[in-house]
Amino acid sequence: MCGIVAYIGNKNAYDIIIKGLKRLEYRGYDSAGIALLNGDMRIFKKQGKVSNLETETAGKDISGTMGMGHTRWATHGEPNDTNSHPHLSQSGDLAIIHNGIIENYVTLKKGLELRGHSFQSQTDTEILIHLIEDVMNHTNLPLADAVLSALKQINGAYAIVILSRNNPEHLIAARKGSPLVLGLGKERGEFFFASDATPIVEYTNQVIYLNDGEVAIVENKELLIKSIDNVIQVPYVEELALSLDQLEKGGYPHFMLKEIFEQPRSIFDSFRGRLDSKTGELHMKSLEEYYDKLKDIKRLILIGCGTSWHAGLVAEYLFEELTRIPVEVEYASEFRYRNPVLYADDLIVAISQSGETADTLAAIELAKRKGATVFGICNVVGSSIPRMSHAGAYTHAGPEIGVASTKAFTAQITVLTLIAIGIAKIRGSLNIKQINAVYSEIEKIPQKIEKALLLNDKILELAKLFHGVGNFLYLGRGYNFPVALEGALKLKEISYIHAEGYPAAEMKHGPIALIDKEMPVVVIATNSEHYEKVVSNIQEVKARKGIVIALVTEGNHGLDTLVDHVIEIPETLECLSPILNTIPLQLLSYHIAVLRGCNVDQPRNLAKSVTVE
Ligand code: G6P
Question: What's the gap in Å between 305 CA and the centre of ligand 1?
Answer without folding.
Answer: 6
